């Protein structure tokens, strides 16, 4: 692994570690991880081998990345405050991210050192044609994980906003509806609001005001 590979892996880990505290979801939250993986994909993902069982290996790793990304997005805490969405990576979300990125890093180091001959033998036995198949599989795993994690968080943020907007709209329309119902029953909304205060003294004052 080159120095740039180490830097990229460490940066990807720090992307989630910075979310251990509550932070507002904004363009940086979305575009930074996507930009990093886009750069990595552009640098390492070409060409994608298709011989033998290469695509099968790549597909398996991509599916693992999808599962980890969705799990990470669902276990990230989402909070709505004053119309703004804040997110925080809990222990599970951060742990999944560190596990996947750290696992990729460990696999790359192992394959370049003591695990090289073992990986070559495994590839020959299972018709994996080249080392590029493993590189593509690992890169697609990261790409799928990042995209699905970010996408899941954005979807949850939008759902939280919609739920809050629906709740506010429902609260705003419930008051006129209740007042209309009370008027149909011959009850003044003002009297009802005052009676809800629950004190006998207030109730007597209301009656007196009506008599006057």
Task: Write out the strand line-up for the largest beta sheet, numbering strands in chain order.
Answer: 1-3-2
Shape type: elongated
Q: Whole-Å distance between the termini?
A: 90 Å
What structural class results from the helix and strand content? Answer: mainly alpha
Helix content: over 70%
Cα Rg:
29 Å
| Oligomeric state of the chains in view | single chain
According to DSSP, the number of beta strands is 3
Tell me the major beta sheet.
Answer: 3 strands, antiparallel
Strand content is: 5-15%
Ranges where pLDDT stays below 50 over 5 or more residues in a row are: 181-204, 206-212
Work out the helix count: 8
- Mean pLDDT metric: 77
Q: What is the ordering of alpha helices and beta strands?
A: HEHHEEHHHHH
In short:
The protein is mainly α and 212 residues long. It has eight helices and three strands; from the N terminus they run αβααββααααα.
